[in-house]
């Protein structure tokens, strides 16, 4: 018996429910370390024989095309990993990069990508300290794939996690949503909009540092990449056992991106971003966090978009494993088996529409925009 | 004008001279951090606000087939990076892993690979703490590519580098050469030998720790992967400005591997290994290092294979950039421009043949066995 489900499908890379399943059932099943089970975008771990902690994260980049309005695969490869390391509250320090090159790829393009990586690394203040090159035959890759891994130093006392959200907290986003996904898709499909749509690819480590300084009790950060805001908030809601409600009207979206999404049938809240940060902060620090975002480069359009409330009825934390971007509540600090706990209704994220109604905001099921990063 | 040299060629991934060129001219040109320019297999860097140093390394694995006698891509992916981190003298601690999956890849094979990674990680004592999954369409990869990056803690006082070799030093290898390359190649090409040839894929961090304990003045370690012993020794010779001479008779090679190499026209000294370590130690510590290797798992066939001597005539250190496996002498600690220094004759590695003659052992020029790791 060999069903379609026995094979890798594009949806397994979506950032949505199918990706969550392969992570749970294959990767966490094999590798379930406490750092992975904690389910954040970066693993935080001790250095033995010292009090230092490091944060580590990795991403492979397979975006097509490699050059698009507002960025390229090189800028993505640096921003993506720097941002993931920074979400832990760490100061990103060092990057590795591994290139998988297809035979026949133009060296001029590779040079352009490397210059972009170097420039972006300089903007972030991280250094590329080790690397690797592999070449595969024509037809065994698609030009160039890049993996970056990043390491940062976690300051003492910092302990951010998607499992930290509490009723009463406030949700912020650092700017307009959907720009990256729509920019890449329109470049790929040759769609032209009257106003050009440009990727938001940007490093956010300085913005995060500014928010942490202004709002030291910040619960967590996450960059809403594949799966968009929908995946990020569902991960937070499941890891923390809370309901998150978003005001659709409050979510900043560029008119041209909104128009493209309506035309193409996408929910902008599920579209990938590469230069935006979601933060959850206690209500009393929300204004300070917002001001810090708005004063930061890449944060001028920041907004408060929602709030956290308790689960209704018998709702409770739901076990939800993650790799590295989906959460699992049963971490080392929370080992209680949850067999007796009734499942939380799917849709612990809700959207208040401009018409006063409420809808459930779920994770993507399959794949929406393959190879967006 | 668009010559063939304007495009990526298979030889750019060979571990030999062409790879050195793309590293020098593309990657180091863009990213030239001091850690990269130091030219070792792992970058060693400080953690600010502490005296801790970390070592970081990365490798992507594109081997075909993914399962071969003696190992699989998962075991390689853990061993390769753990070994590279360990060559710095660091204790490897944490790994990231990034999967690039081709649509349609069997999940059963992916599970098998992950179990192998988990088992190998356990053997090494490292933990996988973060990961990433990307899926590309059919025909845009070859089943599965895996990147791992590794981080280790460097003990105080340890400062290993390929640039540390000194005349009078002794060269050791931890076991038989050529096993991995010939095992993968014969599996791929469907060649059958009377005695099956099995990959040596193995983690060597415990062996390295034992050698460092027994021979604390060890100059450097390197695992002779792509490009084989030839690349490793040429890198050492160029970085240190020395001549290295190998006794061909002393190099351990399994008879069946030697036979296969003769039949296929390969120089076994240029064939890839995945579970061997080369060490350069001061003569007075050579016997202690040898005994430590032989007492270690995976080191029973260790041997002393050569020695280091001064460059002849006007020879001197040659600038030779590296990413991460080729050396460059002009690191932070050696900033003198070498414009006035005559180039060392190529072939600073020599082999004494069993017949008493001497030949130059050069790096591979192009590609010998593509996608061996």
Automatic annotation (TrEMBL), chains A, B:
The record, for SUPFAM superfamilies, names:
PurM C-terminal domain-like, PurM N-terminal domain-like
- Location of the PurM-like N-terminal domain: 39-154
Ranges for the region named Disordered are 319-345
At the top level, the lineage of the source is Bacteria
Biological processes, Gene Ontology terms? protein maturation
Q: Which residues form the PurM-like C-terminal domain?
A: 166-309
In this entry, which stretches build a coiled coil? none
Give the protein family.
Belongs to the HypE family.
Enumerate the NCBIfam families for this protein.
hypE (TIGR02124)
What is the name of this protein?
Hydrogenase expression/formation protein HypE
This protein's species is Collinsella stercoris DSM 13279
């Amino acid at each position: 018996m060999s069903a379609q489900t026995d094979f890798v499908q594009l949806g397994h890379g979506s950032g949505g429910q199918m990706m969550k399943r392969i992570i749970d059932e294959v990767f966490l099943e094999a590798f379930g370390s406490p750092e992975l089970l904690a389910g954040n975008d970066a693993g935080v771990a001790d250095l033995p024989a010292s009090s230092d902690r490091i944060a580590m994260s990795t991403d492979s980049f397979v975006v097509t095309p490699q050059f698009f309005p507002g960025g390229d695969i090189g800028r993505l490869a640096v921003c993506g990993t720097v941002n993931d390391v920074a979400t832990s509250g760490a100061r990103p320090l060092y990057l590795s990069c591994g290139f998988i090159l297809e035979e026949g790829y133009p060296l001029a393009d590779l040079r352009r990508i490397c210059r972009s990586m170097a420039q972006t690394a300089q903007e972030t203040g991280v250094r590329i300290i080790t690397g690797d090159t592999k070449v595969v035959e024509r037809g065994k890759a698609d030009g160039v794939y890049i993996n970056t891994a990043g390491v940062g130093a976690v300051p003492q006392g910092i302990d951010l996690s998607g499992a930290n959200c509490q009723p009463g907290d406030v949700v912020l986003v650092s700017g307009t949503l959907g720009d990256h996904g729509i920019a890449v898709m329109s470049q790929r499909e040759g769609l032209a909009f009257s106003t050009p749509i440009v990727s938001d690819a940007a490093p956010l480590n300085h913005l995060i540092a500014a928010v942490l300084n202004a709002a030291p009790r910040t619960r967590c950060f996450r960059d809403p990449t594949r799966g968009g805001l929908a995946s990020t908030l569902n991960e937070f809601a499941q890891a923390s056992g809370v309901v998150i409600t978003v005001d659709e009207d409050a979510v900043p979206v560029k008119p041209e991106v909104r128009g493209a999404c309506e035309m193409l049938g996408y929910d902008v809240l599920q579209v990938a971003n590469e230069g935006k940060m979601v933060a959850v902060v206690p209500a009393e620090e929300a204004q300070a966090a917002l001001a810090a975002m708005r004063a930061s480069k890449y944060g001028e359009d920041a907004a408060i978009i929602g709030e956290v409330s308790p689960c209704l009825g018998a709702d409770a934390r739901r076990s939800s494993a993650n790799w590295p971007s989906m959460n699992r509540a049963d971490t080392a600090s929370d080992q209680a088996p949850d067999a007796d706990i009734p499942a939380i209704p799917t849709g612990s994220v809700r959207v208040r529409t401009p018409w006063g109604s409420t809808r459930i905001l779920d994770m993507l099921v399959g794949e929406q925009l393959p190879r967006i990063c």
